[in-house]
Amino acid sequence: MSIQVVKAQDLSPADIARWEELRRGQSRLDSPFLSPQWTLAVAKAQGDKGHEVKVAIRRGPEGEAIGFLPARVRQDVAMPVGAPMCDYQALITAPGVTMDPRDLLAALGADRIDFCHMMADDVTLARHARGQADSWVVETPDGYEAYAAERKAAGVGVLKDIEKKRRKAEREVGPCRFTAMSESRAAFDQLLAWKRVQLLLTHQTDLFKTPWVNKLLDELFAMRGPTFGGGLYTLHLGERLAAVHLHLRGEHTIHGWLIAHNPDLERYSPGLMLFQDILKSMDGTPYTRLDLGTGDYRFKRELSNAQQKVVFGFLGSPSVPTLVRHAVYGVRQMAEALPLGRISEIPGKAMRRMDLLRGLH
């Protein structure tokens, strides 16, 4: 068995079809971030740097593809495709198929592979994790009403609270109007404007200054395929735009991605109202899962009824890049073990910021 590496843009139609075939039927791989279409969209958006987006393909004895790992390779380091915009990574294989990490490094021509949202059940890479987090998931296989009853039985009152705020908003502002798969460019632009203000106020990096990020968002906003693409969801109160979400869609999963709301209407929690509308709209469609992603936020804990563990870490061969990464993780782990409050978080935050900037450029 061998590992072949090709540029994403050179993937053959047969290999793209095989990638999709391997994902089909494995709910753990249904995320749109694990689709070949995500990798292709990122490579296209990154323009003259798109050649850095590569796919390692493990082939069986007859030359058939049995495993795929996409990565962006820069300066001898492989990183997730589309980072920091990518919320999941995994090796795409049939059940039980793995790749030797040393063979992966050699094939990619990399000294190190970094990952930040690797699925915790990935048997090839997850064992090299240095930490983990929960991705919060809402599963609605039996529809919204069954989900709402389950939340109520669990003693979680978030849906009742949303309904109460909805009634108050309709009395004081105007009737709610929900639109799924909106084609409104004005709403899309408003979402990005609200997100930029949000990033500025919270002293975070403005992702939207990076040209390839904007090109990627434009491309995904326009993609309406049945098994991959963007989905713009809007909520109006009267004539006022109250909240906008741009999510990614897989075959059965909607992944919560970019969310923002009108700050003048914040007291009504319009973002939560929009999440509730999206969940209701999934009835009678192929979608049975709304993935809210990582982040320990109260609304995610209360809406979710399942979790998917993801891990962060790296694997590397003996080299300077690997030694540097070992040292940085060592400092981070030592600081986080000390009872210094927020000071203990500084190395981890600095590391995440450095990784974010690496991904953007």
Give a quick summary of the entry:
The chain is α+β, with helices and mostly antiparallel strands. The protein is built from 11 helices and 13 strands.
Report what the structure shows.
The protein has 361 residues and is α+β, with helices and mostly antiparallel strands. It has two domains: 2-136 and 309-360, Aminopeptidase (3-Layer(aba) Sandwich); 141-287, Aminopeptidase. The protein is 37% helix and 27% strand. Strands 1, 2, 3, 4, 5, 6, 7, 8, 9, 10, 11, 12 and 13 form a 13-stranded mixed β-sheet that branches. Helix 8 links the parallel strand 11 and strand 12. Helix 2 packs across helix 7 (211-222), helix 5 packs across helix 8 (270-281) and helix 10 packs antiparallel against helix 11 (346-360). The protein is globular and about 65 Å long.
Topology:
Elements (H helix, E strand, L loop, with lengths): L1 E6 L5 H11 L12 H10 L7 E7 L5 E10 L2 E3 L12 E2 L7 H8 L3 E8 L9 E11 L4 H10 L4 H15 L3 E4 L5 H17 L9 H12 L6 E9 L2 E10 L3 E9 L8 H12 L7 E6 L3 H6 L2 E11 L3 H18 L8 H15 L1
Parallel strand pairs: 4-6, 11-12
Antiparallel strand pairs: 1-2, 2-3, 3-4, 3-5, 6-13, 7-12, 7-13, 8-9, 9-10, 10-11
CATH architecture annotation of the largest domain: 3-Layer(aba) Sandwich
Q: Which range best describes the helical content: under 10%, 10-25%, 25-40%, 40-55%, 55-70% or over 70%?
A: 25-40%
Number of helices: 11
| Mean pLDDT value | 92
Number of beta strands: 13
